[in-house]
Amino acid sequence: MPMVHLQQQHQHQHGSPLSSTTSASLLPASGLTFSRSWLVHIAHETVKIAEEGCYTNGQGRKVCVAEALRYSMKNSVHYHSSHQFTQEEIRLHAGPPRFEDTEYHVVYGSSLQVATKLQEYLSSNDTDNTDTDTDDSSGTIGILNSASGKHPEKFLRGTLSQEEGICRATLLYPCLMQYYNRPHHFYYVNHKEKYQDNSSSCAIFVPSVPMVRADSQRGDLLEHPLKFSVISIPAPNAFALGDDTAPCVPKAQSIGASKNNEPYQYWTVERALEDRLHRALSILALQGCTDIVLCAFGCGVHGNSPQQAARSFRTLLHGEFAGRFRTVAFAMNSNRPHNFEQFAQVFQQQPEEQEEPQS
């Protein structure tokens, strides 16, 4: 197992924000892996907290989260799969690239564990906060959620995907569910027949989602909630599609396309993966996230190539999105060491050392 030190595009004068997570052994894949019955229990408890708007922390104090949840739900943004992102749009809303230096980190840990470490660093170093509606630096941290296109409720069954861990520990679930029955939105689109094997590239951005419990085995309620923004988008399902060379992923159509008899167009799995990574990074930049926690997107149960995902991320981050993010951390599941190794290898390379993708 490699001892991977966190990578930087340029060296900073200050210390590494995730210096306590520089080796493969320091973080488990996910803390919320105690037992299925316990996971079910705390999942339903989290839903109850969202409904009641408060919880009692370990010190016996009442913590109110209703206003924070209302903010997240009200300011959530849905992006239809037909939305085409451009650098002009990003510059208009987020301004020009801000950062001369970008730190790159490949570490074992859940997305929330890594985001929490990053938030602690940002707070302790008194960094600038670009989120004007919150008073802590965690409002600038964005997490990429490899989302289910059809079933946001799976965390209630005690299962263990990335999204389910996020929904157990945060109030993301009601923010997603507000879109469940909306025509031409995320879940409505993904339940269409043509998306049964592979969900669309519709995406949901939720700002400053309250995190109410620790991402640990017990999932203890936090003394005070943290806040992280979350971009939810499904990964292409390479396992279901089988062939990564043939065009088989439905390309986005405009709203009402079926009524207008628009012909279907298809992408390869590789091209669809690149497109979704571009969409995710575009939304994170557009929404002003300065520090982001990414993942081995689609490289678990969806069967995408971790090397291809890492290369695509690197190409985008060193190219079109250069200077957009101050910190880029990849949170890796320790149950999939191959993903860790592939991402570490790709992000340790200097730009001129990177191999050209095979045609």
UniProtKB/TrEMBL annotation:
Region of interest (Disordered), residue spans: 1-22, 123-146
Entry-linked Pfam families: PARG_cat_microb
Segments forming domain Microbial-type PARG catalytic: 43-213
Biased composition (Low complexity): 7-22
Matching PANTHER family: DUF2263 DOMAIN-CONTAINING PROTEIN, MICROBIAL-TYPE PARG CATALYTIC DOMAIN-CONTAINING PROTEIN
NCBIfam families: TIGR02452 family protein
Record's protein name: Uncharacterized protein conserved in bacteria (DUF2263)
